[in-house]
Amino acid sequence: MGKGPGAWAATAGTAGTAERDAFGVASSLAGTYRRVIAACDALDARIVDPGSMDDPAALLPDGAELACAPGVLDAFLDASAARIGACHGRAPRRDVAASRVLHDYLWSVSLLMSGAWYLERRVPRIAPRDVRVDLTTGAIGIVPGQDFACLPDDPMAGSPEAHVVGHEEALRAELRAAVVDHVRPLLAAIGPSVRRGPRALWGMVADDLISGVWYLGRALDQEERAVRAATELLPTAIAPFPGGADFRRLAGREGRRYPTRTRLGCCLYYAIEPDRACLTCPRTCDAERLRRLEDEG
């Protein structure tokens, strides 16, 4: 397991410079995560101190176990099926439960990374072992790590844990790479349960990366800025992502134009509520999208 904030406890005056610097980086990243979580009502996440005996989240399974321990992954999928059954009154197919819980995980973890990038131009390298998963609720915990990428003017650019890059596109490349490296083992493990191939799985990752930035922008009343940022982040297919953000506009009443896009992958929500597919689902026509956008404000 990697070091978390609680692992660096040392008596004042006795900790070495490296330990103090690492703690400072983790504390700074924790503050960034709190900003993201506070802005996003739909993000069910919290900070975890793995060294705390009083924090039960420190003992929850981590993201690495989901990918390498079949029993943990099975429990993850069983819990997803139970939540869907309790909410909708019928048990979902196994691939539906797997798709839904994979979507939730991808969206949440990607948003923690992309949110730090969007708010503070900083890309944390979240390792799977730094994510805790509550199998019962699907909520996640995040252990603030140390490694991150940033621009030269970042206040933490001088720390040993910082990977300083020279310009914005290099920072966007760091974000794409951080997401890919994190999710690749989980996709390999859960793919057979989802019953879709690599292109569809990486399409889901692209969708959740893009939609997280878009959601954060809407939450901050910055939708246009977020759409631009998401488009710059994924302007086209960049391996392994099979496509780009590809936003377009729908013309509504009184001249208002609404940004929308069509998902590259599928979270299978329509298999749970057939009459209400996702707003960006290929099954949802533009007329229905526009009706819902205007009716729901």
SSE layout and pairing:
Elements: H1 17-39, E1 45-47, H2 63-68, H3 70-88, H4 94-120, E2 122-124, E3 131-133, E4 140-142, E5 148-150, E6 162-164, H5 168-194, H6 198-219, H7 223-233, E7 248-251, E8 257-260, H8 286-295
Parallel strand pairs: 1-4, 5-6
Antiparallel strand pairs: 2-5, 3-4, 7-8
Helix pairs in contact: 1-4, 3-4, 4-5, 4-6, 5-6, 6-7
Please report which band the strand proportion falls in: under 5%, 5-15%, 15-25%, 25-35%, 35-45% or over 45%: 5-15%
Radius of gyration: 20 Å
Tell me roughly what share of residues is in helical segments. 40-55%
Strands side by side in the biggest sheet? 1-4-3
User: Please, how many helices?
Assistant: 8
Low-pLDDT stretches? 1-20
- Could you give the distance between the termini? 45 Å
Average pLDDT rating: 89
The number of strands is 8
Structural category is mainly alpha
Largest sheet: 3 strands, mixed
Describe the structure.
With 297 residues, the protein is mainly alpha-helical. It is built from 8 helices and 8 strands, in the order αβαααβββββαααββα. The strands form 3 sheets. The protein has a 3-stranded mixed beta sheet, covered by helices on one side. It has a 3-stranded mixed beta sheet with strand order 2-5-6. A hairpin with a 5-residue loop joins β7 (248-251) and β8 (257-260). The protein is globular and about 50 Å long. It starts with 16 loop residues before the first helix and ends with a helix. The model is unreliable at 1-20 (pLDDT under 50).
